[in-house]
Amino acid sequence: MKLLFLGSPGVGKGTYAQVMTKALNIPHISTGDLLRNETQKDTKLSKEIEETMNQGGLVSDKILLQLIKTRIKEEDCENGFILDGFPRTKNQAEELGKLTGITHVLNFKANDEVIIERLSGRIICKNCKTIFHKTGNKPKIENTCDKCGSELHQREDDKPESVKKRLKIYKEKTEPLITHYNDKGLLVEITINKPISEIREKVILEIKSYLEGKTDKIGEIK
Q1: Beta bridge partner(s), residue 215
Q2: Which residues, listed in sequence order, are joined to residue 7 by a DSSP beta bridge?
Q3: pLDDT band at 56 (very low <50, low <70, confident <90, very high)
Q4: Residue ranges of domains in the chain, CATH in brackets
Q5: Which of 67, 73, 83, 4 is CA-nearest to residue 35?
Q6: How many CB atoms lie within 10 A of CB 57?
Q7: Is 200 in the active site?
Q8: Portion of the chain with pLDDT greater than 90, in percent
Q9: Is 122 an active-site residue?
Q10: How much is the pTM?
Q11: Any residues with CB less than 8 A from the CB of 68 and at least 6 apart, and which?
Q12: Is 131 in contact with 122 (CB distance < 8 Å)?
């Protein structure tokens, strides 16, 4: 079972991946984690990745595919995996298809207003990077991190207007990718507007039912 999780910024696909990796007993492979782990090594590749990231550039498809190829050969991927963060374009999807076959593509969705509220309310500790929320997960003391006592701030790209732009760009760039997997009969859409904490078990049951072939669609989980 080789799963690919898609979803816009703020939709929570990383959280869903963490939930399903435990439920299905297969590893969650995040390209962000792969890159961070690689930069901890003392290799020519790690230095190349670190230099690119420090300059604000995008790591090449070739490097990402190389990291994914190495990772999926590890023993814990024998029964499958959940891939998160790659591919982001149709070209990347085609290159990934040459590397490994994906069995299911889950496209997580939420209403734009839900995503904007989630991201625009997010505040982060300047020191330890712990995430809080202005309404959903408030710090005990206003504008102060519960863990280390440092000041909290909001990232520029989490402000409402920036979030709207990020959503627009995501939809424009990923539409060909969604069409690509839909045409192959691999894609299912899942709409989750409620916090995962409220419907965790429903999410697990619905996705398991789909993967086991008991249903051919999921739709909105309420």
Answers
A1: none
A2: 108
A3: low
A4: 2-111+174-220 (3.40.50.300)
A5: 67
A6: 9
A7: no
A8: 59
A9: yes
A10: 0.84
A11: 29, 31, 34, 83, 86, 96, 99, 100
A12: yes
pLDDT band of 1, cuts 50, 70, 90? very high
Residue tagged active-site, from 2, 88, 194, 200: 88
Q: For residue 222, what is the DSSP state?
A: -
For the question of residue 36 being annotated catalytic, the response is no
- Cα angle vertex 79, ends 104, 108, to 5°? 30
Beta strands in the chain (DSSP E): 2-7, 28-30, 81-84, 104-109, 122-125, 131-133, 152-153, 187-191, 219-220
Indicate if 166 belongs to the active site. Answer: yes
Q: 71, 109, 118, 166: which one is catalytic?
A: 166
| Residue 32: burial class (beta carbons within 10 Å; 0-12, 13-18, 19+) | exposed
Please tell me which residue in 41, 69, 155, 222 is annotated as part of the active site.
155
Number of Cβ within a 10 Å radius of residue 145: 21
In the block, residue with structure tokens 């496209």: 107
Q: Give tens-digit pLDDT for 168-204.
A: 988 888 888 999 999 999 999 999 999 888 999 999 9
Sheet holding 81-84, edge to edge: 28-30, 81-84, 2-7, 104-109, 187-191, 219-220
